[in-house]
Specification:
The protein has 145 residues and is of the alpha+beta class. It has helices at 3-17, 82-104, 124-130, and strands at residues 27-28, 43-55, 62-75, 113-117, 132-144.
Length: 145
């Protein structure tokens, strides 16, 4: 298997072994899921997004980076009161923070984590158009080869 697939599988295993305030079973995917049909509860998907190589020396040593996306999707009851809606969204934002804190201190498949990118806690357009909480967190792992 490729190193990116190995790291992705290690992230899935770690997420499924950990305890978070919201219960879920992380799933490995080869590509992101764009259809919301059939999602009726919290879904955490993990997929390998990018592998990049940067030459470190003339002798052919490369620094490699592996990006893994953790995607949190959940339907949100739009007809709920503002207090209930806020509470639902806050618990999903908190889940993203918990996942970041858990993975921040761990190597995956002997590759150290060097960067976490999470531009916004959730996609507000997705939320307003489809009634779904959608958040993508990118974890970058480093390797030498």
């Amino acid at each position: 298997m490729s190193k990116l697939v190995d790291i992705t599988n290690a992230v899935v295993s770690r997420l499924n072994a950990a305890t978070f305030t919201l219960s879920f079973t992380a799933e490995s995917r080869l590509f992101p899921r764009f259809e919301m049909d059939g999602i009726d509860s919290l879904l955490v998907s993990v997929y390998g997004a990018n592998e990049s190589w940067e030459r470190e020396s003339r002798s052919g040593v490369y620094s490699k980076a592996y990006d893994v996306h953790v995607v949190i999707d959940s339907p949100v009851q739009q007809s709920a009161t503002q207090t209930n809606l806020n509470s639902s969204v806050e618990s999903l934002i908190d889940l993203g923070e918990e996942i970041k804190l858990d993975l921040a201190v761990r190597q995956m498949d002997n590759s150290p984590l060097v960067e976490i990118e999470h531009d916004e806690p959730f996609d507000s357009q997705f939320f307003h158009e489809f009634g779904f909480f959608h958040s993508v967190i990118t974890f970058r792992y480093k390797g030498i080869g």
